[in-house]
Amino acid sequence: MLGRIAKGMKNGAMGMALRAYLNDRLKEYGEVLDCTIDTDRGRIAVRVLLAGDREPINAAVEKYDLEREGDAVYATLRSFSSSRQWLTLLLGKLFTGKRYKLPSAVGGFLE
C-alpha cells in the first residue's frame, strides 16, 4: 500500500513538472490546465485551453516508451487520443515514433 501511495506521489510530481515545462514552451498556443502521468500504463494525459477557445480539450499520449542514456531520459511516443478527432489524427501523424529528451525535472523522478 505504501508503495502505491509513493508511486502516486511520484506520478503527481512528474505531472506537475511536465505541466510547468509544457506551459513554458507552449504558452503562445494556450495553457495546460492539468497534466497526469500514469507510469504503470505508459500514459500522459493533458487538459488544454487553446488560445482563442472557450472550452478545454483533452489529449493523451496513450503509450510511450522510456529509455535511459547516461543521465538523460528519452521518451518515444507511440499512440495518441484526444477529444477532437482531427487532433488525434494530427498528433499521430506528427509525433508517432518521435523520440524526445525529457526535462531533468521529470527524468529525475524516474529513478
Q: Which structural class fits the helix and strand makeup? A: alpha+beta
Report the mean per-residue pLDDT as an integer.
Answer: 88
Query: Which of globular, elongated, flat, extended, rod-shaped describes the shape?
Result: globular
Let me know the number of strands: 5
Overall radius of gyration: 14 Å
Largest sheet: 5 strands, antiparallel
Q: Helical content, roughly?
A: 25-40%
Folded structure, characterized:
- The chain has three helices and five strands, in the order H-E-E-E-E-H-E-H.
- By secondary structure, it is of the alpha+beta class.
- Strands 1-2-3-4-5 form a five-stranded antiparallel β-sheet.
- A hairpin with a 4-residue loop joins strand 1 and strand 2.
- It is globular, with a radius of gyration of 14 Å.
Core attributes:
3 helices; 40% strand; alpha+beta; 111 residues; five-stranded antiparallel beta sheet; single chain; 5 strands; globular; 36% helix
Draw up the topology in text:
Blueprint: H1 2-26, E1 30-38, E2 43-50, E3 57-69, E4 72-82, H2 85-95, E5 99-101, H3 104-107
Antiparallel strand pairs: 1-2, 2-3, 3-4, 4-5
In short:
By secondary structure, the chain is α+β, with helices and mostly antiparallel strands.
